[in-house]
Structures are given as structure tokens and as C-alpha cells.
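User: Could you write out the 3D structure of this protein bound to magnesium ion? I've included everything you need below.
Assistant: Certainly. Input first, then the structure.
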Amino acid sequence: MAHMIIGGKAVQAQSGKTLEVRSPVDGLTFETIPRGEAADIDLAVAAARQALNGAWGKMSALERGRLMLKMAQHVLDHAEELALLEAQDTGKPMTTARNDMVVLARYFEFYGSAADKIHGEVIPFLNGYQVNLLREPLGVTAHIIPWNYPAQMMGRSIGPALAMGNAVVVKPAEDACLSCLRIAELALEVGFPPGALNIVSGLGEEAGAALAKHPDINFISFTGSNEVGVLIQQAAALNAVKCVLELGGKSPHVVFSDANLELAASTVVRGIIQNTGQTCTAGSRLLVQSDFYEEFLSLVAEKFSKVRVGTPEMNLDCGPVVNLSQQQRVNKYIAQAQQDGLKILAQGQIDPNVPNGGYYVTPTLFGQVPAEHPLAHEEVFGPVLAAMPFVDEAHAIALANGTDYGLLAAVWTENGGRQQRVAKALKCGQVFVNSFGAGGGVELPFGGVKSSGHGREKGFMALEEMSTTKTVIHFHG
Ligand code: NAI
Ligand code: MG
């Protein structure tokens, strides 16, 4: 049975309650996790506060950084074990899970290396004054993690928080959190002081809600659905604490007729298939210039039809989706689109040898999707790609910006002026030119505009988000 880490100890929920963990591969229960609730969150927040007032709070930035670098190596030393947990829990191919652990280690490396390189400023002021701007931790930071990339998301969220000297409380997703629980244990092994990193597993509406509204937290970072994101922001508002929200997207590829077709087509397919489409940054809309729409779509369809779905051990293009409700959600979108007369241009295939009872879905490419159809603007969170033509640059920009989301976008063209113009006109947090990268790039500031959320993660900007400043105004005469 998996356990939580609170105040440096491996514990079960105080109530003794547990939750069953089902494998997406066959739908069978293979593990149990503690069902933490408000009482466990209280203990975790208190332990974090105590750590700030104790060994963790007293540690120098240099020592914190060294600990994090040690953690990066410890993660790599346990990468295979963590990858196996991640693959069992989420159903993703082992190759993907292994890569996720490399990214997790990279977060500890990047932020560990940065811990002693963030410094304050001296501000020129009136004669007779010395003004110092100190950079300080926020205090106890709360991190609510989704199930699509549990380990990576935990690294992304707690890396900058720990580097800045905050004490963290993590609430991983009930649907996949085995790697997160193990990561917290690994942190104890490398010597993080008790209470610096606490983790409470449990349901969103129980442990998650209790953490979000806890009066003694100083910050919340959340990645997940819009619906819950709004609840998080409300809870943060009631405590007047800052929150960073990352709420998914409907990210477009904008492909002009002068693009490198082969590179664009293979990148487009990978961008929606990765993690079975369960990626906030999935490239789920394909906008293509009308004069070569047919030619480009036939290339994309050819590649799309080669996509194979299987178990983690099969190491195909993608695995099952995470649970029954995601499977039903994806299948509903596909069925509704067909019912509405949308044309299927290509479908991938589920390997015939996958076990019964798993949550497999068929990757599907739809063509000529009208801009007003739900498939053109709602997040499916599955391997479903919606293609549509555009006439010119202005039309492309209008379509690309025509959803409530604004997370990522890609523009494909060899025309330098157009690359710049379109990148500037797109309303989102990251734009790729002749490339598309979901996930990695820990150095690159990341986050959304509009309904995709606010605040920035990754890169140095995350260190600013997870810290505050104090202006010390000293009159010396
Ligand atoms: P969710 O938003 O309910 O879950 C994400 C995290 O929030 C989990 O840790 C969950 O325990 C927690 N949570 C749930 N309710 C909470 C509450 N009331 N208070 C505090 N924490 C709470 O997402 P769900 O239901 O698993 O997936 C639904 C849809 O959300 C997906 O189909 C997808 O569209 C979107 N989603 C987006 C993600 C992204 O990466 N942007 C990740 C996961 C889901
Ligand atoms: Mg939910």
C-alpha cells in the first residue's frame, strides 16, 4: 500500500480510509492509496510551517540548491522504478514514462542550479538612503497536480517553490499519483528536512478543496480543468493569496502553403497523439491554407492512420486514456462529431492484443470542421484532431484566436515576415515557429492567457511567481 509523506514521516490517512487504484491498461485494481482529508491537510500545512521556522527555513540558498541537485541525481538513479509506476498508473508507453523522469530530474537540476542565483536589488533613492530589495519565499505553498504527467507536473510545480525556500504541500491527482508519492519519499532519502515537502493523496473535493481553502497557506499552484480552476481562484481570493492557474487549451497549428510539409505533417500528428492527447498543450486544431488543404491533409491522414495504441510494454504511439470517464468523454466527442456529419479523414488503430477492460480510444482525424462546431473550440483531452481550411493570414489569425483558450500555438511558414506577424497576433502564452513542443523546455516560461489561466511556470519566471520581495528603506543620513 502506498503512503503519504507528512512532516518527514510515511503515513496513512488519519481516518485509515483508502482509495483503490485502477490500471487504465485493463481496468483492474492493482494498488491502494491513502484517502487523505482535511485533517491530514491540517497536519501537512502545520508540518510545512514548522519546517519554515526550523531547519528548512534556516538553510542557505546554496545548501538548498545542492540538495535539489542531489535529488535530480536520485531521481535519475530511480528513473526505471518511477517510470514503471507512472506507466502502470497512467497507461502511457514505457518510453514516454522514462522520458518523463528525465524531465522531472531536469526540473530539480534547473531549479537547484538557480537557487543561489536569484538575488535582490539595490534601488537608487534620495540622498542619505540605502534601499535594498530583498527576495523572499512566500511561505507554505500548495500544489494541486493533475494526472496526465504526474511526475513532471510535480517537478514543474515544486521545483521553483523549493528553490526559493518555500515549504510545500502537494495534493496529487487521485487518478494517478503513485510516482508523486514515491518522489516525496525520495526527497526524504536525499535529506530534505522534515516538513519541507509534504504530500497528501486523496480526492479533489476532499483533500484538494481542504488544501485550497486552508487559512495558513500563502500560495496555490493548480493545473487541471477550468471548472476546478475557478474554485481554486475563489478559495485563493477568500484567503487573499496568490494563485497560478494552468487550465488547458485548444492549441492551433497554423500551416501556410509554403511550409515544410513533411516536417509539419509529422509534427502535427505527434502533437495530438502524445500522451493520447491528454496534454494541456496538445495541438488539437489544424488550420491549413485552403489552396493546399487537400494535399496537406492527405499527408497528415496517411501518417495519422499509422498511429497505434497499446499497453505500456508494447511501446506504441500511445496508451489508453487514464480512466473510464475520460474514455467516455473522448468517445462522446467522436460520436457526436460523426452524428453531426463531420468527415473522418483517418483513424489510428488499437492493437488487437490489448487486454479487455482497458480505457482505449481510437485516435481520430476530422476534416472540414466548422469553426462553430464544439470540436473546433472545446478541449477533448484525447487523440482527436480537428482540421479546417483558412483563406489568408487574417482569416488564419481570426480562427486561431477564435476560442476561449490561449495556451500554445504553432505557425508553419518559410516567410520570415509572416512568422513574426502571426506570432505577434496570436493570443497565447507560447508560440512555436516551424516546430511544436509540448511538455519539455523547463527553461521556457509557460502559461496561458484567457481561459487557459494566468501566471507563469517554468524558467526563471516561476522563481518570481513563487517568491515575493521586501523593500528595505534605510535612512543613514
Ligand atoms: P480536475 O481539474 O478535476 O483534476 C485536477 C486536479 O484537481 C486533481 O488533483 C484533482 O484531485 C484536483 N481537484 C478536483 N476537484 C477539486 C476541488 N474541488 N478542489 C481542489 N482540487 C480539486 O480534472 P479531471 O476531472 O480529472 O479532468 C477533467 C478535464 O479537465 C479533462 O478532461 C481535461 O480537459 C481537464 N484537465 C486538464 C489538465 C491540464 O493539464 N491542463 C489536466 C487534467 C485535466
Ligand atoms: Mg474533476
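The longest strand covers residues 129-137.
User: Perfect, thank you.
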